[in-house]
Amino acid sequence: MSKLERACIIDDDPIHQYGMKILMKKLNFTEEILVFHDGQEAIDALLDLLNTGGQLPSVIFLDLNMPIKDGWGFLDDFVKIPHHNREQVTIYMVSSSINPSDRQRAETYEMVSNYIVKPVDEDQLREILREESV
Amino acid sequence: MIANQVSLHTFPVSVALLSTDLSFLDFSGIWLENFGLSQNIKGKSFFRSMPKLPEELQLDIQYCLDGVGERCDSAKVTHEDGEVVWYEWKLNTVNTGQDKVDGVILILEDITEKKLEEQLLKKSLEVARIGGWEVDLLDNTIYWSKITREIHEVPEDFVPNLETGISFYKEGYSRDTITRLVKEGIENGASWDTELQIVTANGKDVWVRAIGEPEMVDGKCVRLVGTFQDIDRSKKAEIAYKLVSERHARATRTAGIGIWEYDIVNNDLYWDENMYRLYGVKKSDFEGVYSAWESCVLPEDQEESAKAVSDAIAGKGDFDTNFRVRWPNGEIRWIKAEASVMRDENGKALKMIGVNQDITELKTAQLQLIQSEESLQGAFENSSVGMALVSQDGSFIKANQSLCKSLGYTSGELSRLTFQEITHPDDIDIDLSLLSEVINGDRSTYQIEKRYFNKKGQVVHVFLTVTAVKKINGELSHFISQIVDITSRVEASNKLKGLLELTTSQNNSLLNFAHIVSHNLRSHTANLSMITGFLLDNEISTEEHQESLKMLKRAANGLDETIAHLNEVVQVKLEAGKKLRKISLAKTVNKVLKDVSALITENRQQVLVNTPKEVYIKGISAYVESIVLNLITNAIKYRDPQKEGKININITVEGNHVVLEVEDNGLGIDLDRYGKKLFGMYKTFHKHKDARGIGLFITKNQIESMGGAITVESEVNKGTIFKVKFLKAEQV
Questions:
Q1: Is B708 found in the same domain as B601?
Q2: For the Response regulatory domain, which residue ranges apply (chain A) (predicted)?
Q3: B530 and A99: CB-CB below 8 Å?
Q4: CA B44, CA B38: separation in Å to the nearest integer?
């Protein structure tokens, strides 16, 4: 398993952000972690990154419920990014919601790989890392 | 001498014997009688005794005395007074010796009467247009009198024979009949008397009466004699009369009109055929007297009908009455009777002539009408449905008890009102427009659900059916309104609707709670789970353990806070339906502004309040305060730092509601994006340190629990207006 170049966490909950960072560090998940508090902040930053010739993160952990722009809003904006730039990006929806309708809705987005119910644990992250390495 | 030989006295003719010196020698009793003379004329001069005799008689007597054996003649004398007297006489000379005239026998008769009769007959034959005819079968000659020719319209010199005579009869029945009759007459000597039609020489159809009498000699007919009478006018009149009377009889029979005539003097009651039919009596069973009629009349009606008869006879008015008769089979029929009274010159009543008519059907229909009117009236009065007769201008002509009860007015009070005056203003237009369609004839009826105000001013819900009533000429007369009071139904339905709304809102709350539990509570428990995982993980550094403990505290607090919020919402829900009190909205606003004055000053907000003095709402004071506080602090919190902050607070009255508007010129909200979520729990739309997404959720719940509503208008970077509708409380 090789370390990822860049991963991204979009979540307004500081506890979740903290937990994810701890887990990634422990698993040696990525070189760099980008953290955003809402969808708008995230999309703005990612577009900036592209404009400055940067590389998009290979994995995005996206929360559903956020102020300003929630997870769905982010996805709606993200699909507008030219395909060749985002085709290497894997998005995981991460939510505390166990509401089945949220999972079903997530499945309608082609670029969403999986729907993970919080809390995210070590094994799940390890599995993701393995898949990404392959 | 002669006189002594035979006495003329007993001779059965009017005869006298005159001497040569023309004095009476003898005379018969009849002579005296005929000429009004007495015995003492004997020996007296004939001409002196009877001066007014025709001159011709004097001459004839003279001739006889001169030797002419006999004379007979007749002549007339016109008296000075113009009277004409006809005499007929016969004279014979009386000779006792040879060539010596001893006297004359004179038979003299006054034939004036006979002569008159003769003349009259002739005249009457002419007038009656009776002609004569005669056929001599031996030489086959035929004679037609002048009138006969006239009837046939042939010239005077027309010479008929038997065949031409018959050929004048109209072809068909008339000619066939006369041919047969003449044949029978000739063969059997049978006479005839018949009425037939001829066609005159001028082609005119004429009715004639033909009488024929054969003369038989040794069983053989030698002659036919007869008369021929023009009866065209009378026959045609007769035919016409027959037609008329048949028509009349048919008409009266069809109309069921019976004609009767009552001879008061002789108590003789005549009925025509129809009368028997009307009374169901056989002609043979009816005695034709007054009491026979009376016995047909129903006993209950006898007194009155007898009085009508006696009144009419006494001249106290026309006979025009109705009574019932009982038929022999027990059936009872109504008869209408009318009559006139005939009187003599002294005014004494002689006869009554009148008509009877069976009016049973009419009477039955009348009775049924009365009954149906009575039952309609009863139905109108006692119906559980409110009913009213309404005039074209909308005023109540008549209202039944049920309607009075629904509206709380007496029927007298209603009659001074129009339906427009007591109709709910929101319902008047539709009612009037439908009514005008009825007035214009576009429809004959309509039904609507509408509201009236009762006498106390309370709303009465009704289901109204309006039907037009027309006059006989088709013009609109008035309306019948049927009004079903559905107030209790509507109230029950509203209550049900309320319950349904409550249930729906509770269901929504439940869903919301499910969501809150699935997301908001879970997010905390997920955090707790993750953090405790780190704490138990030995591979994690001490610093990270310390940090994890802080995070654990934070997660626990978050959970606590969420539970507190949920409790608050549950409380609001539980408080719903709590008794609302009268609250001054203006005072509440001022109190809140005072409480947050520091915040306002700090953020340099300009606040304008525009409110009527006395405005009261129905509410729970803690909620109202919380709502106002939340809206004002929101306005401050989401101000636009680039602008000078302005907050306008307006309070207005809209019908039964009081509207609170809080308007800011702040950041605004993208409603297309967040409109649905705006009042949801834990929804925030601004990057703000204090945005917690709980305020509007609680606010909305509080407002709704007081029967109000909240709406929002907003534009990003322009500002936001929150409008809160409260129930208005009465001033008193």
A1: yes
A2: 6-133
A3: no
A4: 11
Kindly state whether residue B377 falls inside one of the protein's structural domains.
no
Task: Give, for A75, the enclosing helix (H) or strand (E).
Answer: helix A71-78
Q: What is the pLDDT of residue B685?
A: 57
Could you tell me if B607 and B647 lie in one domain? yes
DSSP string, B100-143: -EEEEEEEEEE-HHHHHHHHHHHHHHHHTTEEEEEEETTTTEEE
Interface contact flag, A67 B687, Cβ < 8 Å:
yes
Phi then psi for B505, rounded to 5 degrees? Answer: -70, -35
Q: Between B451 and B79, name the one with better pLDDT.
A: B451
User: What CATH number should be reported for the domain holding residue B447?
Assistant: 3.30.450.20
* Residue B371 domain-assigned (yes or no): no
pLDDT digits (tens, 9 = 90+) for B144-201: 888 888 888 988 888 888 788 888 999 989 999 999 998 888 888 888 999 999 999 8
Whether B587 and B660 share a structural domain: yes
Contact assignment for A121 to B515 by CB distance below 8 Å: no
Amino acid at residue number A52:
T
Q: Which domains does chain A have, with CATH numbers?
A: 4-133 (3.40.50.2300)
On chain B, the residues whose CB falls within 8 A of the CB of A73 are 673
Residue B721 shares a structural domain with residue B590: yes
Pairwise CB contact (< 8 Å): A15 & B693: no
In a domain, B659, yes or no: yes
CATH number at residue B550: 1.10.287
pLDDT at A1: 63
Residue B28: CA count within 13 A, CB half-sphere: 16
Residues paired with B110 in a beta bridge = B87
Residue in A closest to B677 by C-alpha: A67
